[in-house]
Amino acid sequence: MQVDSCDAVIDSGLERLHHGDPAAAEALFRQAVEAQPTNSEAMGLLGVSLFKQDKKSEARDALKQAVELDPTDADAHYNLAEVFVSLDQPGEAQESYSNCAREDPSHPTAWRRLADLRARAKNHKGASEAAEQALLQTPDDVDLMFWAAQQMIVAGRIKDASALLRRATLLAPDSLKVKVLQFNTSITDNDVDGAVECIERAVKLGPTDRQVLLARFLLYNRLNRLKEAADAGGDFVKQFPEDADGHYTLGCVFEREGERGGAALAFARYIELQPERAIGYARLGQVLLHVGHLQDAETQLRKAIELDPKTAATHMHLSIVLERIPSRMSDAVESVGIALELEPRSTAVLGWLATLQTKQGKHTEAAQTYRKVLEIDPNDLGALLGYGHLLAGQARIEAAWEYLEKAAEICPDKSHVRATGLFFANAHPDLGRDHIFAMHQKWASLMHKETPEAFTEWKNDRSPDRPLKIGYLSPDLRGHSVAYFLQPLLVAHDKSSFEIFIYDNTPGSDQLSVHLHTLVNHWYRIVGGSAERVADMVREHEIDILVDLAGHTADNRLDVFARHPAPIQVSYLGYPNTTALPEIAYRFTDDIADPIGADTYYTEELIRLPGGFLCFNPPQPFLEVAPLPAGETGNITFASFNAVHKINRKVIALWSRVLDAVPGSSLLMKAGGLADPETRESIMAGFKQNGIQEGRIIFVERTPGYRAHLEVYHRCDIALDTFPYNGTTTTFESLWMGLPVIALAGDRHSARVSQSILSRLELAELVANDADDYVRLAQQLANDRKRLATLRSSIRPTMLDSRLRNATALAKEVENAYREMWRKWCNRPGV
């Protein structure tokens, strides 16, 4: 066949292809190939006609021959690449597209197809380079720019991606895709402000776009901007209510924000959508635990365990719930045991086991467990703080301090880590007032960094003489010393002039909680509530004066006070030192506990109540005072009912001197934790170092019921107080049961409370000025049985007639102080 005739056949075949008849075209192209076997054009078109008929293998063979005949034929390389793609041979396809682009760099689609294949092969660098070549041919293709920038980001070419996206923005300023990718670029480049700006712009462009709404939600969550994350998550689940993961993540955000109500609703919705997933029940159970709904929490956690019995954390949280339910301690121990079997080296599970052991009074076992945690992770904060707390409860405050200080060194910028040290600093015999005050100020500076800007405006009616709303906030509204001292004040308050609100952060409740509830008209449980929510509640109630009853003790809510929700805030009762929060303006005390000059060590203004800052309301039953156990000739029994963490080496040394000065005498010690062998050994070792043998120290464990507790006083003659952290409730109890208390006056509030109490009973002669005086007073009193007997019979009557039992007088002084604070505030300009 002549060349002209062959070209005519090829043209006819092309015409058939264009008219959709590849079979007829195939016949013509075969005719041309038979006539001219080296005609690459005919061979290539034969391959195309075969491919159009889905004869892929034959098409591949024909096109391979075509590129062998003419390696410069870009179209043949391209068509062969297309066949390879259809045969799922991506490697061969990439090679053919590359050959096409090599022969024809301006080929309209080869570069784009090559880029796509490289991206699928995770060759993002090669994909981005191919896409750049494609853009040379179509420089205004915004979608291609978007795609190319994606590949650049994954390949780590962030600056190139940013430049390309700026170009795309100029061409299509309102392109949603561009904005989303700019957001991704900013995130990868750690440009937080740029990411926020881009995603918010994307939301405006695509307010219902799933990818955009989810990206905004996850961005704010990642940035720990919890309020914005919660709002963004709410928008997402509102638009996509069936998205279970969205509800779950929103629940996690609410939980971190402290919005436990929102978290519970989100996790409950997740359970509705994913009823077979254990994680939903587990997280809901944890939320219910934090808000004190223990029975419901147990139900949810047991359902989670039913679905997934192999998750140690769920068993641990169930154990935490059970421990808080009365009479379920054995069940709590069983659950943590299961958790430990599942994860024997889990520091979280071991830490909770140590806590349980401590609560059971098994301090020796708890110490061993904490040491095991610290072997696994020497920097475990929970174990360092927990072990420090435990050692303090074994009368080893100096050893405890090493662990508390290490925790603060490891995590120097978290207020909650330093808070534990503040409480025990008051009992440390070697820390001066300046050092302790500086510690409190450091804590306050950290708290302010963690707290949103405090309120500076309030809508309270500024009438100076109107009835005032007083709020008391406490975590101890149960059988606790704070509740016993608060009770008479609540009873005696003038309800016509003061409307009382209680904000209860107590983890559990008891009979005293129920009784206190009857004394006020407004009682709000805030357990598990975020600081923001509780502060908003206080503002909604328009509380005029908010009173903190905890200071730096367990479960306090100083985070609420740091937000300054009430115009006037006061510290009272629960803590023997400054809170250091400038938002708390006043502190109730008296002129003996805090004499003139003590003000230097408080950030609060001291309000010294004329009759003393305490009123003792002895709990029922009223047990009669027993006769003097020593009688006229028997041996003296000294006593200490103080908490063990108040006992330090200097206290033991001084008590040893007292025992040495009174031959035949003994010391009875009763406190929680003394059932533990290691604690007794630690205390006894201190006495032995000071020459006192075991027979002279009597350890009494916790007794069942308050009556049995008071009956132990019948065995004692004289109480010895601790220092530098005096007793308060124990001083009152000792006096109530007829025991004179020997106290050592110190230079700070915690070391002067007993002096304040004794002075109100005209027993200031029992307060020593120094260690020698302490020994002398104890010795003289022990040797004067007549005076001792007289004191035993007279202290309670004196107490009953004193200001320390006059709740009405205390309430009047407190209320006068409240009114004066209020009038000053009303007269302040610009408030």
List keywords for this structure.
elongated, 13 strands, alpha/beta, six-stranded parallel sheet, 7% strand, 831 residues, 38 helices, seven-stranded parallel sheet
Task: Using the alpha-carbon principal axes, give the shape.
Answer: elongated
DSSP E strands, number: 13
The average pLDDT value, as a whole number, equals 91
In angstroms, what separates the terminal alpha carbons? 107 Å
Q: Beta fraction of the residues?
A: 5-15%
Our Rg estimate from Cα atoms comes to 40 Å
Sheet with the most strands, sense and barrel status:
7 strands, parallel
Residue share in helix? 55-70%
Structure annotation, total helices: 38
Describe the structure.
- The chain is α/β, with parallel strands linked by helices and 831 residues long.
- Helices cover 58% and strands 7% of the residues.
- The chain is built from 38 helices and 13 strands.
- The chain has a seven-stranded parallel beta sheet, with helices on one face. It has a six-stranded parallel beta sheet with strand order 10-9-8-11-12-13, sandwiched between helices.
- α12 (192-205) packs antiparallel against α13 (210-222).
- The chain starts with a helix and ends with a helix.
Summarize the helices and strands and which ones pair or pack.
Layout: H1 3-18, H2 22-35, H3 40-52, H4 56-69, H5 74-86, H6 90-103, H7 110-120, H8 124-137, H9 142-154, H10 158-171, H11 176-188, H12 192-205, H13 210-222, H14 226-239, H15 244-257, H16 260-273, H17 278-290, H18 294-307, H19 312-324, H20 329-342, H21 347-359, H22 363-376, H23 381-392, H24 397-410, H25 415-425, H26 433-450, E1 468-474, H27 481-492, E2 498-504, H28 511-517, E3 522-525, H29 531-540, E4 545-548, H30 558-561, E5 568-571, E6 586-589, E7 605-608, E8 637-640, H31 649-661, E9 666-670, H32 677-689, E10 697-700, H33 706-711, E11 718-720, H34 729-736, E12 741-744, H35 753-760, E13 767-768, H36 771-783, H37 785-800, H38 807-827
Parallel strand pairs: 1-2, 1-4, 2-3, 4-5, 5-6, 6-7, 8-9, 8-11, 9-10, 11-12, 12-13
Helix pairs in contact: 1-2, 2-3, 3-4, 3-5, 4-5, 5-6, 6-7, 7-8, 8-9, 9-10, 9-11, 10-11, 11-12, 12-13, 13-14, 14-15, 15-16, 16-17, 17-18, 17-19, 18-19, 19-20, 19-21, 20-21, 21-22, 21-23, 22-23, 23-24, 24-25, 25-26, 27-38, 31-36
